[in-house]
Amino acid sequence: MEERKKIVVICGPTASGKTKLSLLLAKKFNGEIISADSMQVYKGLDIGTAKVSLEEQQEAKHHLVDFLPPSQKYNVEIFTRLAAEKIMEISSEEKLPIIAGGTGLYIESLVNGITFTDQNDTSEIRKELAEALKEKGGEYMYNLLESIDGDYAKNVHPNNTVRVLRALELYKATGKTMTQQLENSHPIKKPYDELLIGISYISRENLYDNINKRVDSMLSQGLLKEARYVYDNRNEFKNSAAAIGYKEFFPFFEQLQSLEACTEKLKQSSRNYAKRQLTWFNRMKNINWVYVDGTENYIEKALQLTENFVGGNN
RNA sequence: GGGAGUGUUCCCGAGCGGCCAAUGGGGGCAGACUGUAAAUCUGUUGUCUACGACUUCGAUGGUUCGAAUCCAUCCGCUCCCA
Q: What does each C-alpha distance from A272 to A93, A119, A124, A209, A278 come to in angstroms?
C-alpha cells in the first residue's frame, strides 16, 4: 500500500511574502517549488505577476512558472493535472514538494484531489451561451439552469452570469449537471499528506501598505512597458489581459486617464484582490496561520511547523 | 471691492418643506466560489439600552405643526468683473 506523499502548501494574499518563505523552506528542507498561480505561468509577464526572479530560481527549482505563451489557456483542470505530476516526480527524487501560490481554487482543488469531467473544447458552446445571454438576458439563462439543475441554481446568484453559464456549459458539453460534478469529484481518500501554511497579517493596514509599495516598485522596474505589451496583444492574451497589473493601465494607453489615476486604481484592485484571497483561505480548514507582525517570528513558526511535519513519522 | 455659485454621512455625488439616517457610485467590512478564478458575484455600512429612541446634511439664529431642503448673518471654497 502506497503511502500518501507529503506536500507543504504556502498560501496567502498577494504581497504577503509567499515567495520568500517558499524559497527558505525549499532550501532548508530539500524542496522544489510548484507554483499555484494562474498568471505567473505566462512568459514575458514577469513584473506585473511578481514572478520569482531568475536569481531566485537559482536558489530552488521552480515548476509551473514561466512556461506558457500568454495567448494560451490555463485553468484549474490543467493546473491540478500538471501539479499532481510534478508532485510525483519531486517525491520520487526524495525531495519535498512545496506548493506556493495565491489562487485559492487551484490550491483547494489540488489538495482535495478534485477530478474534473472530461470535456472537449467548449469554446463554441461558451460562445453560443454568451450570445444567448446577450439576447435573452440573465433571468432567462438562470431559469434555464433552474430547469436542468435546480439544486445548483439555488446556490448561484442569478446575477452571477459567469457561474450560471459555466454550469450550462458543463451540461451541454458533458451531459453532467454541476450538482453531479460536485458530488463525484471527490476521491474516496484524500491524495496527499499535506501541511498547509497560510501567511496573514496582524494588521490589515500593513498588508495594504505592502501592496501599495509593491505597486510603486513594480512601476520603477518597468511595469508600464509590460502592460503596454499586454495591451497591444490584448485580443490574443485572453486570460492574461484580465490580470491585475495590466488592465488597470489600459485607460492610460487610451489617453482616457492619467498615469497617476491608473496607478491608484491598480493599488485598489490589488487590495480588493488580497481581501478576496483571505476570504477564500479563511474558509479552508486545516490551514496553519502564521502572522506577519514586523518581526521574523512568522518565519520561525513556519520553519517549526515544517520541521515537525517532515520529521514526524516515516 | 462688485456679481454668480457652492458647502451633504469615510470620499465622490443626488436630494431642494413632511414618504430622509438621507437615491447612486467608490472605499471599508463580511461572504460566495469545482475547467475565465489576478475572473465573477452577494450582503452590509450614523449611534444606541435597537418593531423604538437619539444625533447628523459648513456655523449661528429665524420662519413653519414640520427644514438637509425657505430666510438672515457669519465662516470656507469656486468662477466672473474690478
A: 40, 33, 32, 13, 10
